[in-house]
Amino acid sequence: LNVMKNSHAECLGPIIPEAMEAVKDVLRNKRQYEGDERTRLRRELANSLAVELCSESEDVRKCAEDGLQLLAELENQRTSAVLQLVKDQILRSFTKRPLRTLPWLNQIGQVSALTFCIRHRPMFANEIASANPTTPRAIFTGAIETLEDSMVANLVEMEDAKVNYLVDKNFVALNTVNLLLPLRLQCVELLCEVTASCPKLRLSDPKNENEELHQKMLTVFFHSLQSRREPIVKAAKQALKNVIQHDNLQKNLLATNLRPILLKLGDPSKLSVQYLQCLAGVLETLSHWFNVILGDKLLQHLKYWTDAAAAVNRRQAPDPLVAAAILDLLHLLPPQANTFLEKMVHSVIKLEQLLDNARPGAAHLGLKGRDAASTSPYREPLLKFCNVHAEEACQFFLQRESGQIRYLFLCLISAYDGGPLRLKLEQKKKDIILLMRSEGPSKSSIYGLKIIDAISRENPEWLGNNREVFDCLLLTWRSQERQERLKREEIVPLEQLRESEMLAQCFLRYCRRHHEEVSVLFTILSVFSTRSRSDFTFIKDYYVDYIPEHYSVQHRREIVMCFLGQYMDATVPHEEKVHALQFLIIPMLEKSFKAGETSSILDEEIIGRIVRDLIVFRGLTATDEYLSAELLQLSILIMQYMPNECQQHKKDLISLGWNHLKKDNITARNWAFLS
């Protein structure tokens, strides 16, 4: 600990881990002692660590705290038992001088030490009071005075540019400014622990003699919510939650502290992001104290941004981030606020229409997601509201036919943070199917398809467990209208361009969980027969990489049998047969053969059918250049890895190769030489 205290800050990086480990080694080594010697050593170690709880160095304090907890752990005791041993040692540190008269570093050390002690031994404040009744109150009062100090507060909340100006002009020392934020944070955390752990400071105590002190603490908590420093706000929120949990707050006391905050809410032109974040902290902690009518007032304020008449009287365009912060308050209101959903959606649409072109760096303001990314700051608050009121949100969006509203909903459910909304939407399977069927197979069904795609992309298990949804997708895929749209992509609406791609993605997600569904693997091969702007490489990757690695031998055998039936079907176009051989059958068999699974997939009966029905008969009569080439590749593959099984078909295979050598088909002739 002395090494850590006496080392320069720049040298502490490599020293801290070694020093802390050395302290822990000393504590562990004491287990070799027994009896009185062990007790004496335990007390000495505890006293040595207790002295450093008030150290000026944050690293030394952290090491001392960890050491006391480790000492308690080695003794199979709670930390409070170890603190009982060092109570007198810590008390002497607190009674030397009043808190506010100490240097900044010493103030931080004392407040941090008392916070640690009360956190692990709630009765600690009472024990100190029994020795010196004025000590706890003096420290708590000192912490409150620090939080109420306007100079300290102004320096902590001041923008960095202004702080740098004061430092440059030597009005304040940079070291002082750097210490004020940790001091205020420690004071808030101390009072937070007091509200949770000290019963005699609660208003619910009928014998409470510290009502004035408690009220001051409550006031500084509300003031701390207005800080722009997130750690201070977080500690203040927790402190208010502790107060609510343990006390029955009087309405007049609550109203007194809320009045200064709510007074600023009357004029929308005077609202700021920092103020609205403060109000959000209040709502998050005290939402049940507010009337849902507050939501109406907030939505009325949005007219300051959307009302054209109000724009005439404005000197400058209002900040859209303020409007976003207003929207961000609505999800914190009581449950009855679900009635604001429709107004909120229409407000978001209007506000987005007024947004300027995205500025550099504005991307962080919008939702995050594959199909949800935007620079609009309004969608994230709307998503939070929809996550809280997911049932009402799903009903609202599924029943609307407006293109803008539908597009907004698709962005929300595609966002990474839209989990609660998607979870509720997953329960609306019947509504989604009804949505697709009501539009019928003769139409795009694109809205329902995009909903299914968004859900299944984040939760593939949902689609795998819902065969009805899968059948509905198959119906859309087989529709003649979809095939026509695929052929004339250059004139279809923009939202329909990815229709076939999304359908194929959904099919493969289903197939990953249902390997027995082999027929659909051949169904989606038709996309390769038409030129498209979409990239269907993911289908090839699934066939070439996923199926040989993850499908069982039995399922791969079923794929071969299904292909034989497809090949013999005269209604299946030659192109699809070529693609089946090129992307599915040949790559799958080649990898399976290399893995030594030849006889497991192809027995003599299947080989006979392949040679007799595919390679020989169809191959001799095939006029398609590419189909002939693929059939020759298949024959070469079988002869290479299964020569014994091909002996009885050797004459037929030679005739096949010789027949193609005499043709003008250059591609097939090259493969015929190899055969």
Descriptive terms for the model:
675 residues, 0% strand
Question: What can you tell me about this protein's structure?
Answer:
- The chain has 675 residues and is mainly α.
- 69% of the residues lie in helices and 0% in strands.
- The protein has 40 helices and no strands.
- Helix 26 (429-439) packs antiparallel against helix 27 (446-458) and helix 35 packs parallel to helix 38.
Largest sheet: none
End-to-end Cα distance, whole Å, is: 81 Å
- Cα-based radius of gyration, to the nearest Å: 37 Å
Structural class, by secondary structure, is mainly alpha
What's the tally of helices?
40
Mean pLDDT: 80
Overall 3D shape: elongated
Taking pLDDT < 50 over at least 5 consecutive residues as the criterion, the unreliable ranges are 202-206
How much of the sequence lies in strands comes to: under 5%
Name the assembly state: single chain
By DSSP, the count of extended strands is 0
**Can you give the helix content as a percent range?**
55-70%
Q: What's the quick description here?
A:
The chain is an all-alpha fold and 675 residues long. 69% of the residues lie in helices and 0% in strands.
Write the layout of secondary structure elements.
Blueprint: H1 2-6, H2 12-29, H3 35-51, H4 58-74, H5 79-85, H6 87-94, H7 104-120, H8 124-131, H9 134-148, H10 150-157, H11 160-168, H12 174-197, H13 211-224, H14 230-246, H15 251-262, H16 273-286, H17 293-301, H18 303-306, H19 308-312, H20 320-327, H21 341-353, H22 379-388, H23 390-398, H24 403-414, H25 419-426, H26 429-439, H27 446-458, H28 460-464, H29 467-478, H30 480-487, H31 499-513, H32 519-523, H33 537-550, H34 553-568, H35 574-594, H36 598-601, H37 604-621, H38 625-641, H39 650-661, H40 666-674
Helix pairs in contact: 2-4, 3-4, 4-5, 7-12, 8-9, 9-12, 9-13, 10-12, 12-14, 13-14, 14-16, 21-22, 22-23, 23-25, 24-27, 26-27, 27-31, 29-31, 33-35, 34-35, 34-37, 35-38, 37-38, 37-39, 38-40, 39-40
